[in-house]
Write a structure and sequence with these properties.
Elements (H helix, E strand, L loop, with lengths): L3 E6 L1 H12 L17 E7 L2 E11 L2 E9 L8 H15 L4 E7 L3 H5 L4 E9 L2 E9 L4
Length: about 140
Protein backbone atom coordinates (compact mmCIF):
# COMPACT_ATOMS: atom_id res chain seq x y z
CA UNK A 1 0.00 0.00 0.00
CA UNK A 2 1.24 3.46 -0.87
CA UNK A 3 2.21 5.84 1.90
CA UNK A 4 0.13 8.95 2.31
CA UNK A 5 2.14 12.12 2.82
CA UNK A 6 0.48 15.23 4.24
CA UNK A 7 2.19 18.56 3.67
CA UNK A 8 1.61 22.28 3.60
CA UNK A 9 0.70 23.49 0.12
CA UNK A 10 0.03 26.84 -1.54
CA UNK A 11 -3.48 28.19 -2.05
CA UNK A 12 -3.04 27.77 -5.82
CA UNK A 13 -2.38 24.05 -5.38
CA UNK A 14 -5.84 23.56 -3.83
CA UNK A 15 -7.85 25.02 -6.68
CA UNK A 16 -8.09 22.16 -9.19
CA UNK A 17 -9.28 19.59 -6.62
CA UNK A 18 -11.65 22.08 -5.02
CA UNK A 19 -13.27 22.76 -8.36
CA UNK A 20 -13.29 19.17 -9.68
CA UNK A 21 -14.76 17.67 -6.50
CA UNK A 22 -16.91 20.36 -4.92
CA UNK A 23 -18.24 22.45 -7.80
CA UNK A 24 -17.37 20.70 -11.10
CA UNK A 25 -19.88 22.75 -13.09
CA UNK A 26 -18.50 26.08 -11.88
CA UNK A 27 -15.33 27.90 -12.98
CA UNK A 28 -12.19 27.62 -10.85
CA UNK A 29 -12.72 31.22 -9.73
CA UNK A 30 -15.87 30.03 -7.89
CA UNK A 31 -13.75 28.00 -5.44
CA UNK A 32 -11.21 30.72 -4.72
CA UNK A 33 -11.62 32.40 -1.35
CA UNK A 34 -10.72 36.04 -0.65
CA UNK A 35 -8.91 34.88 2.51
CA UNK A 36 -6.91 32.09 0.82
CA UNK A 37 -3.68 34.06 1.19
CA UNK A 38 -4.08 34.17 4.98
CA UNK A 39 -5.02 30.51 5.43
CA UNK A 40 -3.06 27.34 6.03
CA UNK A 41 -3.51 24.75 3.31
CA UNK A 42 -2.85 21.04 3.66
CA UNK A 43 -2.51 18.53 0.88
CA UNK A 44 -2.45 14.74 0.99
CA UNK A 45 -0.19 13.11 -1.57
CA UNK A 46 -0.01 9.53 -2.85
CA UNK A 47 3.11 8.94 -4.95
CA UNK A 48 3.51 12.71 -5.32
CA UNK A 49 -0.05 13.04 -6.69
CA UNK A 50 -2.17 15.55 -4.78
CA UNK A 51 -5.33 13.61 -3.88
CA UNK A 52 -6.95 15.61 -1.06
CA UNK A 53 -6.90 19.24 0.08
CA UNK A 54 -8.16 21.29 3.00
CA UNK A 55 -7.85 24.97 3.86
CA UNK A 56 -7.81 26.20 7.46
CA UNK A 57 -8.47 29.69 8.76
CA UNK A 58 -7.61 30.66 12.34
CA UNK A 59 -9.52 33.20 14.38
CA UNK A 60 -8.62 33.49 18.03
CA UNK A 61 -8.86 30.09 19.69
CA UNK A 62 -10.81 28.45 16.90
CA UNK A 63 -10.34 27.41 13.30
CA UNK A 64 -12.68 26.94 10.39
CA UNK A 65 -11.73 24.46 7.71
CA UNK A 66 -13.07 24.98 4.23
CA UNK A 67 -12.93 23.49 0.75
CA UNK A 68 -12.11 19.98 2.01
CA UNK A 69 -11.97 17.84 -1.13
CA UNK A 70 -10.69 14.37 -1.99
CA UNK A 71 -10.37 13.22 -5.59
CA UNK A 72 -13.41 11.14 -6.58
CA UNK A 73 -11.27 8.10 -7.47
CA UNK A 74 -9.62 8.22 -4.04
CA UNK A 75 -12.73 8.56 -1.89
CA UNK A 76 -13.56 5.74 0.51
CA UNK A 77 -9.90 4.86 1.14
CA UNK A 78 -9.48 6.76 4.41
CA UNK A 79 -7.47 9.58 2.85
CA UNK A 80 -9.90 12.31 3.91
CA UNK A 81 -10.05 10.77 7.39
CA UNK A 82 -6.27 10.94 7.68
CA UNK A 83 -6.23 14.54 6.49
CA UNK A 84 -8.94 15.54 8.97
CA UNK A 85 -7.10 13.73 11.78
CA UNK A 86 -3.95 15.64 10.80
CA UNK A 87 -5.89 18.89 11.15
CA UNK A 88 -7.22 17.90 14.57
CA UNK A 89 -3.71 17.04 15.77
CA UNK A 90 -2.39 20.32 14.36
CA UNK A 91 -5.21 22.29 16.01
CA UNK A 92 -4.55 20.64 19.37
CA UNK A 93 -0.85 21.45 19.11
CA UNK A 94 -1.78 25.12 18.61
CA UNK A 95 -4.00 25.04 21.69
CA UNK A 96 -7.18 25.73 19.73
CA UNK A 97 -10.49 25.13 21.48
CA UNK A 98 -12.92 24.70 18.59
CA UNK A 99 -12.82 23.46 15.00
CA UNK A 100 -15.79 23.98 12.71
CA UNK A 101 -16.95 23.82 9.12
CA UNK A 102 -19.90 24.19 6.81
CA UNK A 103 -20.50 20.56 5.84
CA UNK A 104 -22.67 19.36 3.03
CA UNK A 105 -25.59 17.78 4.85
CA UNK A 106 -25.07 14.47 3.02
CA UNK A 107 -21.52 14.31 4.49
CA UNK A 108 -22.47 15.11 8.10
CA UNK A 109 -22.10 11.45 9.11
CA UNK A 110 -18.41 11.55 8.12
CA UNK A 111 -17.78 14.39 10.57
CA UNK A 112 -19.84 12.76 13.33
CA UNK A 113 -17.34 9.87 13.31
CA UNK A 114 -14.75 12.37 14.54
CA UNK A 115 -16.99 13.77 17.26
CA UNK A 116 -18.33 16.78 15.36
CA UNK A 117 -21.87 17.86 16.19
CA UNK A 118 -24.42 19.67 14.06
CA UNK A 119 -25.18 23.19 15.20
CA UNK A 120 -28.19 25.22 14.12
CA UNK A 121 -30.41 24.51 11.16
CA UNK A 122 -29.44 23.55 7.61
CA UNK A 123 -28.89 26.28 5.04
CA UNK A 124 -28.30 26.27 1.30
CA UNK A 125 -25.41 27.24 -0.96
CA UNK A 126 -26.18 27.09 -4.66
CA UNK A 127 -29.14 24.80 -3.87
CA UNK A 128 -27.02 22.34 -1.85
CA UNK A 129 -28.01 21.81 1.82
CA UNK A 130 -25.26 22.51 4.37
CA UNK A 131 -25.03 22.40 8.14
CA UNK A 132 -22.55 23.92 10.58
CA UNK A 133 -20.56 21.16 12.32
CA UNK A 134 -18.23 21.84 15.21
CA UNK A 135 -15.93 20.05 17.59
CA UNK A 136 -14.63 21.33 20.91
CA UNK A 137 -11.11 20.09 21.49
CA UNK A 138 -9.99 18.77 24.86
CA UNK A 139 -7.84 21.14 26.91
CA UNK A 140 -4.16 21.16 26.12
Amino acid sequence: METLRIALISPAQTLDLRQQVLWPHKPVSFVQLPEDDTGTHFGAFLSEELVSVMSVFLKGEEAQFRKFATAQAMQGRGIGSQLLQHLLTHASSLGLKRIWCHARQEKAGFYRKFGFKEKGTPFFKEGVPYVVMDLYLPGV
